[in-house]
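[Discussion] Sanity-checking designs against the backbone

I'm trying to build intuition for which residues belong where. Below is a structure token string of 195 positions. I'd appreciate it if someone posts a full sequence so I can compare it with mine line by line.
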């Protein structure tokens, strides 16, 4: 039977309150994520952490003509995972947006993630993290395209909502493409059954 994996998208300091590109309430999802992370590890299931990991001159930065303030510059404190997020040993860490001229909202874009998950016979992903309307959405869409069953844990995501309703629109789009809108409790139950 194909395995289930947990994917935690971009829970980095810069995307949490006090960071360079903070999502309002971005850190509020951490307790629920930590419970899911523990459950998946206890069941021996893969846990993936994606992170924005930009060079100083990344094309998404305003000073390079992009739309965002400078954020998640590789090896700076802002790029580190939030200090309350559990990142167990043996987790898969995926860095994205590492090249100056390539934006990567999705953890699958320009990375080895698809190949690594398929090598582990993963068929289903539960996804949480930041932000609903950007990197979570794009990661989930790419996961669907790659043929994974996808569950988005609504209690484990937060949106930017540059335009009002962006998060709701993201949920609607994902559901329309076949993602399940679910929660961390369902992901944890699934991980225990898979153990
Ligand atoms: Zn970025």
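Best answer:
Here's mine. Compare freely.
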């Amino acid at each position: 039977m194909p395995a289930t994996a947990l994917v935690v998208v971009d829970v980095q300091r810069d995307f949490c309150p006090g960071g360079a590109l903070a999502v309002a309430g971005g850190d509020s999802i951490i307790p629920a994520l930590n419970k899911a992370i523990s459950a998946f590890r206890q069941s021996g299931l893969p846990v993936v952490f994606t992170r924005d990991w930009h060079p100083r001159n990344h094309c998404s930065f305003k000073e390079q003509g992009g739309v965002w303030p400078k954020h998640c510059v590789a090896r700076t404190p802002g790029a580190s995972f939030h200090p309350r997020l559990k990142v167990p040993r043996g987790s898969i860490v995926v860095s994205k947006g590492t090249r100056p001229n390539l934006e990567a909202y999705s953890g699958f874009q320009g990375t080895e993630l698809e190949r690594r998950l398929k090598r582990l016979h993963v068929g289903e992903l539960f996804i949480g993290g930041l932000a609903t309307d950007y990197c979570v959405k794009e990661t989930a869409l790419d996961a669907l395209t790659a043929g994974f069953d996808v569950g988005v844990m609504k209690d484990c995501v937060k949106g930017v909502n540059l335009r009002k309703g962006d998060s709701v629109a993201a949920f609607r789009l994902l559901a329309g493409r076949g993602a399940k809108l679910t929660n961390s409790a369902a992901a944890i139950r699934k991980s225990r059954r898979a153990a």
